[in-house]
Amino acid sequence: MIQFEARPGILDLGWGHPRPELLPTAEWGVAAGEALRVFGWQALTYGYAAGPRPLTEWLAARLARIEGGDPDPDALFITAGASHALALLASVLAEPDDVVLVDSPTYHLAFQILADARVELREAGDDLAATIRDLRAQNRRIAFLYLVPTFANPTGRSLPPDRRRALVEREDLTIVEDDTYRELVYDEAVAPPSLWRMAGGRNVIRIGSFAKTVAPGLRLGWISATPALVGRLAGLGYVHSGGGVNHTTAVTMAAFGASGAYDRHLTRLRESYRDQRDALATALSVEPPPGGWFLWLPVPPGRTATGLLTAAEQHGVSFVPGPHFYLDRRGGEDRIRLSFSLLPPGELTEAARRLRLALN
C-alpha cells in the first residue's frame, strides 16, 4: 500500500518521509470538495498541458511573495513531483553520453533518475571551473549541474552567498536547482535567495515540490523555467496526449492554496518539525539546522558509517550511511544522515539514546 516499511523494534531515522499525523487528510478533503464546487466538470477532464492556470497563478504569486520578483505563471510547468521534474529535465536537456555534474554529497536517489537518461555522472568537485575546463578539453558536452543548495538533503546546510553568486554568474553552465525544502524553515531563520531568483531565470532551472509541505502522495511539483522551456515541456507527446500532468490534484491544490489552508497547514508543520528537530539535535548535542529534514552527523574517528549501521541496528535504531550520498559511494564513511521528519519528539529522543549506545 505504501513505500515505508516498518521494522519491529527499530526506530528508523533513515526515511525522509513526513510524520503521518501531520498529513492534512481532513483539510485536503475540504479542498477537493471546494475544487469540484468551483470548477465542476473542468476539475475532472483533460487539463492544460503546462498545468491548470488557477494553480500556476497562485504558485507564481506565492513564490513572488516569499522571495520577491514579479509573478509569471508562464514560467511554471506543473509536474508529478520533484523526481518527475528531474526526469523530465534530463530528457529534454541531455543527450546520451552527455555529462551531468552533481554536487557531493547530494540527494542520493537523483543518481538513478539521471542515469536513466543514459548520461555520465561526474562530481562537480571543489573547483568547478577546473572540472568544466577539463571536460571541455576532452570535447565532452555538459548538460547541466544538479544540486540542492537550500537546506540540502543530506546535510541540512545551505550554500553560502559567495558560492551562490559564483554559480549564477557562470553564463556557460545550466544549473538545475532542487529547491524542495525552501518552505521548511524554522525559528527566525530566513531561507537564502534561490539561485533561480538570483539569476533572474537566466541560466537556472528550478524544481519545487509539495511533497514535503503538503503530502508526497499528491505527486505534485513544478519547474520554474523560461516560457520557452515551459512550452517545450508542454509539447512533449505524453504531456499533450494526457492533458497535462496530474490535473485533478493540481486543481485541488489550487483550491487548498487559495483558501488559506496551505498557509495554516504550513504554520503547524513548521512548529511540529521544529520540535522534532530540536528533540533529536538536543539529545545528540549537535547544532540544529535552520531548515529541512536532516542532521548530517560526523562519525567518531576510527569508526565507519557502514560499520556503525550494523551496531546501531543491534541497538534498535537505523539511519542512512554517508556513502549513499556520494557518486559511486566514493566517500562519506565519516558521516551519517539522520531524518527527524518521520518520528514524534519522544521517539526521536529514544532513537538518539540508542544511537549513543552504538557510538559508545
What features would you describe in this structure?
The chain has 360 residues and is α/β, with parallel strands linked by helices. It folds into two domains: 11-16 and 262-359, Aspartate Aminotransferase, domain 1 (Alpha-Beta Complex), CATH 3.90.1150.10; 42-259, Aspartate Aminotransferase, domain 2 (3-Layer(aba) Sandwich), CATH 3.40.640. The protein contains 13 helices and twelve strands. The chain has helices spanning 25-39, 53-67, 82-93, 110-115, 128-137, 161-168, 195-199, 227-234, 237-242, 247-258, 261-284, 305-314, 345-359; strands at 11-12, 76-79, 99-102, 120-123, 142-147, 175-178, 204-209, 221-224, 294-298, 317-318, 320-321, 335-339. The protein has a seven-stranded mixed β-sheet with strand order 2-8-7-6-5-3-4, sandwiched between helices. Strands 9-12-11 form a three-stranded antiparallel β-sheet, covered by helices on one side. Strands 1-10 form a two-stranded parallel sheet. Helix 6 (161-168) links the parallel strand 5 (142-147) and strand 6. Helix 2 (53-67) packs across helix 10, helix 11 packs parallel to helix 13 and helix 12 packs across helix 13. The model has no long low-confidence stretch (mean pLDDT 96).
The oligomeric status of these chains comes to single chain
Tell me the helix content.
Answer: 40-55%
* SSE succession: EHHEHEHEHEHEHEEHHHHEHEEEH
Number of distinct beta strands = 12
What ranges have pLDDT less than 50 throughout 5 or more consecutive residues? none
- What count of structural domains? 2
CATH class of the largest domain reads Alpha Beta
Strand arrangement in the largest pleated sheet:
2-8-7-6-5-3-4
Inertia-based shape: globular
Tell me what the CATH architecture of the largest domain is. Answer: 3-Layer(aba) Sandwich
Task: Report strand %.
Answer: 5-15%
Structural class: alpha/beta
Rg, alpha carbons: 21 Å
State the separation between the terminal residues, measured CA to CA: 38 Å
Give the CATH H-level superfamily of the largest domain. Type I PLP-dependent aspartate aminotransferase-like (Major domain)
Work out the helix count: 13
The CATH topology of the largest domain turns out to be: Aspartate Aminotransferase, domain 2
* Biggest sheet features: 7 strands, mixed
